[in-house]
Every structure is written in structure tokens, then in C-alpha cells.
Specification:
Elements (H helix, E strand, L loop, with lengths): L2 H14 L3 E3 L11 E3 L1 H20 L4 E4 L7 H6 L2 H4 L1 E6 L6 E3 H27 L5 H7 L1 H22 L3 H10 L16 E4 L3 E3 L9 E3 L5 H5 L2 H7 L6 E10 L14 E11 L4 H18 L7 E5 L9 E9 L2 E10 L3 H10 L5 E3 L4 E3 L2 E8 H12 E5 L5 E5 L10 E5 L6 H12 L5 E3 L5 H11 L3 E5 L1 H6 L1 E6 L5 E5 L3 H9 L1 H5 L3
Parallel strand pairs: 3-9, 19-20, 19-21
Antiparallel strand pairs: 1-2, 4-5, 4-6, 7-8, 9-10, 10-16, 11-12, 12-13, 13-16, 14-15, 17-18, 21-22, 22-23
Helix pairs in contact: 2-13, 5-7, 5-8, 7-8
The chain binds glycyl-adenosine-5'-phosphate.
Glycyl-adenosine-5'-phosphate (GAP) binds next to strand 10, strand 13, strand 16 and helix 13.
């Protein structure tokens, strides 16, 4: 099965088991908007908690806030989003389909990459053991030509994007002879800029002055509360403010499931530091955030840094933590050293000083900021896609299992009476009623025990406990572990400890 097939199966699985639904499905859906079902909501909450506790609870110099989605429109002028939060768009005149010009070019570059890889694979087969890939890549004429083409196109694209030269972007699409995937024609409009912010009106009168935006990032809610929090929390630099919340972007290219959405959630932290110390903290947060990701145990090889060579005008260092999604390595989290850009701009636009008096240096200054910004939905996708596994068992049966990190699993414990009579359901309910204060438990008495195990595997429940006739006499039950499927007979009194050992937030966070 190809990666693409597995990804399709994962999307179907996420729907079938109540993790993620297309929004407004009964009205044929709304593109790039998704709803989280009963298990998706639990999974998301568990990820939020894992992030919040790692960032806020475990750092006595980081506090969390919850700012409003609606903010004063001047904030988006100051932050630069009104002027520059744009995507370059192009329409095909025949299909009337709209594309991001840079994405058309990136797809074109990906196709060249595929050609190169095919050529390399051909060489590997031809030369077998004597194959030297590095030498092949630098000497095979087809590969060399394609690499040169790739470099040339990518250089022209980056130059055009940096210079905001829309005519040059269009020319590059024409020169590469890129055709519309729908109509197959090369009949393109000019490229123009399209602002990604959603706007609406506040109050009852729809006048220009009443236009406000749905926030495209949560970070600005932190910046404009910097002094409120610093003063009321008596925070001393260096300190951080964290926040989890919705953000909205009118993304034109909506694809790859919950990877790129129009309404999504971010988990952001702004760390305020002394000017001149930002690069030290940037490096600190790069390491700390990677450790957080790795602690989830999805596989260390699935992460890599992508340091930005071309920096935004307000940044003096930036990197992405990329994750190996089913469609390749893509950004999961951004870490940016944003200098004093945002606070200084808010100082300028609001006319209010955004300075900190440093008692150690006896100086007032606008702090520098290092930001960590991770997409919650992308984390859900990272977790689900690494956990999803279709397995053939030794006895010839098949199972789909979500090997979720136990700390994130929506249901921690399934309570299963072997039969639904003879007092077993009552005994099972007693266990459930006790343990539901500690863990999210699910009770299930329908179908054979094998089918019930499969259902719990499919939603990633780390522990199943079965109550049988003997349990009524000896107060012991069978606990089954999801990944190994091993079973063990244990006293009911030990259940809480055994489940806790697997799902304890503390144990997982201590791995960081
Ligand atoms: N405050 C900085 C900021 O917003 P960003 O790189 O634009 O930076 C941060 O976004 C993170 O938010 C990304 O790494 C990604 O995980 C997530 N994100 C951004 N756009 C998204 C979208 N359309 N859908 C889902 N997640 C998105």
C-alpha cells in the first residue's frame, strides 16, 4: 500500500471512530474546516494539557492567558498583517480555479524531485551493489540537468517572493509551462496579492470603521497584554506568556486534511528577554521544544529542523520543526526570534510605552521576544498518522490499532464484562464508577470480547480490563495491554496503579 492509500485509510478511520468529521457535512461540507468528534475532542484536550503543563506548570517564569479573538483593528495594522499577510494568487481562465502561485511552483519542483528520484532508483537497480549514489547524482546527465533546473526555478521563485515581484512569479509559471491541473490549459490571469485575514463587522452598523478581523495568530493577544501580565504577575525578565486558542486564515490551498485549515488552533508562547540575549534563548527554546516533541515517543527520526535562511524583516533567527507527515516533511512548529518588532510597533501605534524596567541593570527597554508557535491540529495529525497501523496477527486475523502515546489516548481504560449476565455487568460498573474519577473510562458489554478488543485497539485505548465469573469470587480481573496484547490477571485493587503507570502525565513529562 502506498503512503497515499494509508493516509486515505487514516482519514476514513478518523471519521468512522468519531475523531474528525468534515464540517457541515450534511450540507456537503465546508472546505478546509473540520469538526472534532467525541474522541477527537478528548485527544485534542490531552495534547493541550501536555503542552500547557510542559510550558506553564513546569516553568515558574511562564504564565498562561486566554485573550479574545476579536481585537482592535489597529493591532493588525501595527503587526503588519493588514499590509503584508498575503498569498500570491493566480486564476486559470478556463477552469476558473484559483491557485497560490508559489504552490503551483512548489508542486512543479516536487515533480522534478520525483523525476530525479526515479532516475536514481533506475541507477540503483542497474548497478546493484556497485552503486555509488553520490557519484551518480553528480554525473548522470538527466539528474544533473534536473537538479540545475530545480535550483534555477527555486532561486527565481524565492527572489520574486522576496521582492514581491508578482510579474516575475507569473513569468516563471509561464516559462515552466505549468498547466492547470483541472483544465490542462496555460491560460492564466496575472498574479495578485490576497490578504489571508477574515474580516467582519462589529456593532450593528456595517461601516468601514466597524471592520474587525478574526485573529490570524494568537501571538498578538499576548503582545498587547505584555505589560498587564508583567505588572499584575510581578514577572521579571526573562519570562514567558503562553496561550492556546483559535486562529483563522483564509487559506486558498486547502488540502492534506487538517494540515492546512481555515479555522485552526495554535499553542504559542512569547518569551520576553533582554535585548542582546535573544539568540541564546532562541537556541534554548529550539532544544526544549524538540525535546517536548520527542518525549511523545512518535520516533526521533520523524523530526528535523529547517532553519530559515531568508528571514522576515522583523526576525533575526527562525527555524521550523518539521515532522514526517504521510505526505513528506512539513512544518509542525515555528520558533522565531522576533526582536522587539511587535512591542515597538504596538508602542508606536497605541502611543503607550511598552517598556520594562530592569531592576538588575537599572534600565528601561522594549524587550526582545523569542516565540514558539505550534499548530494543535497539525499535532493531532502527527500523532494520528504515526499511531495508525494496519496489522496482520500471528493467528491470521487483522487489526487496525492506534498506537497513541498512552498519555494522549482519548480513552485510557475499557471496562468489559465477559458476558452481560450473572452479575458481571454490575461488578464491571463498580470498577468503572471507581476509576472514572482517575481516568477517562469506557464501558462496553456488546459483542464478543475479541470484537470489543478490536474496537478499543482502533481508538487507541492502552488498557482493557475484563471481568469474568471468577472475578466475583477472587476480586481479580484480566488486564490487556494494547500494543503487546499481553494479558495478566491482577487484583482489582491494583488496577488504578497499573493504568496510572502507563498514562501518568508526570511520567511522560519527565522524559523531556
Ligand atoms: N505567531 C507565529 C505564527 O503564527 P506560523 O508559522 O504562521 O507562525 C505557526 O504558524 C503554526 O501554526 C505552524 O507551525 C502550524 O503548525 C500552525 N498553522 C499555521 N497555519 C495553519 C493552518 N492554516 N492550518 C493548520 N495549522 C496552521
Amino acid at each position: 500500500m502506498t503512503q497515499e492509500d494509508v493516509f486515505k485509510n487514516l482519514i476514513a478511520h478518523a471519521k468512522e471512530y468519531g475523531f474528525i468529521f468534515q464540517s457541515s457535512e450534511i450540507y456537503d461540507g465546508l472546505s478546509a474546516v473540520y469538526d472534532y468528534g467525541q474522541l477527537g475532542a478528548e485527544l485534542k484536550n490531552n495534547i493541550k494539557r501536555y503542552w500547557w503543563d510542559a510550558m506553564v506548570r513546569l516553568h515558574d517564569n511562564i504564565v498562561g492567558i486566554d485573550s479574545a479573538i476579536f481585537m482592535h483593528p489597529s493591532i493588525w495594522e501595527a503587526s503588519g498583517h493588514v499590509g503584508a499577510f498575503n498569498d500570491p494568487l493566480i486564476d486559470n481562465k478556463d477552469s476558473k480555479k484559483r491557485y497560490r502561485a508559489d504552490v503551483l511552483l512548489e508542486d512543479y519542483l516536487e515533480k522534478i524531485e520525483e523525476k530525479i528520484n526515479k532516475e536514481v532508483e533506475k541507477g540503483r537497480k542497474k548497478f546493484a551493489d556497485g552503486f555509488d549514489e553520490a557519484q551518480f547524482r553528480t554525473t548522470n546527465p538527466n539528474v544533473v540537468r534536473n537538479v540545475q533546473k530545480q535550483e534555477e526555478v527555486s532561486r527565481r521563485m524565492n527572489d520574486a517572493l522576496r521582492a514581491n515581484d508578482l510579474a516575475a512569479l507569473k513569468q516563471l509559471i509561464v516559462d515552466c509551462e505549468i498547466a492547470c491541473p483541472v483544465s490542462g490549459s496555460r491560460n492564466w490571469t496575472d498574479v495578485r496579492q490576497f490578504n489571508l485575514m477574515f474580516s467582519t463587522q462589529i456593532g450593528s452598523v456595517s461601516e468601514e470603521a466597524n471592520v474587525i478581523y478574526l485573529r490570524p495568530e494568537t501571538a498578538q493577544g499576548i503582545f498587547v497584554n505584555f505589560l498587564n501580565v508583567q505588572k499584575t504577575g510581578r514577572m521579571k525578565i526573562p519570562f514567558g506568556i503562553a496561550q492556546i486558542g483559535k486562529a483563522f486564515r483564509n487559506e486558498i490551498v486547502a488540502r492534506q486534511f487538517i494540515f492546512r485549515m481555515r479555522e485552526f488552533e495554535q499553542m504559542e508562547m512569547q518569551f520576553f528577554v533582554r535585548p542582546g540575549e535573544e539568540l541564546k534563548w532562541f537556541s534554548h527554546w529550539k532544544d526544549a521544544r524538540l525535546r517536548w516533541h520527542k518525549s511523545l515517543g512518535l520516533g526521533d527520526e520523524k523530526y528535523r529542523f529547517h532553519d530559515h535562511e531568508k528571514l522576515a524583516h522583523y526576525a533575526n533567527a527562525a527555524t521550523d520543526i518539521e515532522f514526517a507527515f504521510p505526505f513528506g516533511f512539513k512544518e509542525l512548529e515555528g520558533i522565531h526570534s522576533r526582536t522587539d518588532f511587535d512591542l515597538s510597533r504596538h508602542q508606536e501605534f497605541s502611543g503607550r510605552k511598552q517598556q520594562y524596567f530592569d531592576p538588575e541593570t537599572n534600565e528601561s527597554y522594549v524587550p526582545y521576544v523569542v516565540e514558539t508557535s505550534i499548530g494543535l491540529d497539525r499535532t493531532v495529525l502527527a500523532v494520528l498518522s504515526s499511531a495508525y497501523s494496519e496489522e496482520k496477527l500471528d493467528n491470521g486475523e487483522e487489526r487496525v490499532v492506534l498506537r497513541l502515546p498512552a498519555v494522549l489516548a482519548p480513552v485510557k481504560l475499557a471496562v468489559l464484562p465477559l458476558v452481560k449476565k450473572d452479575g458481571l455487568p454490575e461488578k464491571a460498573r463498580d470498577i468503572m464508577n471507581d476509576l472514572k474519577f482517575d481516568f477517562n473510562c469506557q464501558y462496553d458489554e456488546k459483542d464478543s470480547i475479541g470484537k470489543r478488543y478490536r474496537r478499543q485497539d482502533a481508538i487507541g485505548t492502552p488498557c482493557c480490563v475484563t471481568i469474568d465469573h471468577q472475578s466475583l469470587d477472587d476480586n481479580q480481573v484480566t488486564i490487556r495491554e494494547r500494543d503487546s496484547m499481553q494479558q495478566q490477571r491482577v487484583p482489582i485493587a491494583q488496577l488504578r496503579r497499573l493504568v496510572e503507570e502507563q498514562v501518568s502525565l508526570r511520567k511522560w513529562l519527565e522524559r523531556m
